[in-house]
Design goal:
Elements lengths: L1 H15 L5 H8 L1 H5 L4 H12 L6 H14 L35
Helix pairs in contact: 1-2
């Protein structure tokens, strides 16, 4: 929990200084709130309540929602799936020596 308190203090400082990375950091800390389908007003109220200060504005939330798809952490690159090797089927043909085969005309 101490790490979260440190993040909150850091976020408040970033917003007070109008740092350019404040919105991205806010999204990284509270991405679950942005992923919910709350309105701007509710989202701003929740974030300001968690931060303990009125530092987040509607414009911040709008900006984050517009850009968060670019910020999402890329998952580990998937290895291409290799299909299991299929066993070749051998045709069931019985080979015989034509000289030893019975004459079909008789």
């Amino acid at each position: 929990m101490a790490a979260m308190e440190e993040d909150i203090k850091h976020l408040r400082y970033l917003f007070q200084k109008a740092d350019v990375k404040r919105r991205r950091k806010l999204y990284e800390c509270f991405s679950d709130i942005f992923d919910s389908q709350n309105s701007y007003v509710i989202t701003v109220e929740i974030l300001n309540d968690k931060l303990g200060a009125s530092v987040v504005s509607r414009a911040d939330v709008k900006y984050i929602r517009a850009h968060c798809s670019k910020w999402q952490k890329p998952s580990t690159p998937e290895q291409p799936t290799i299909a299991p090797a299929q066993k070749r089927t051998v045709p069931k043909i019985k080979w015989t020596d034509p000289d030893q085969a019975p004459d079909p005309a008789s």
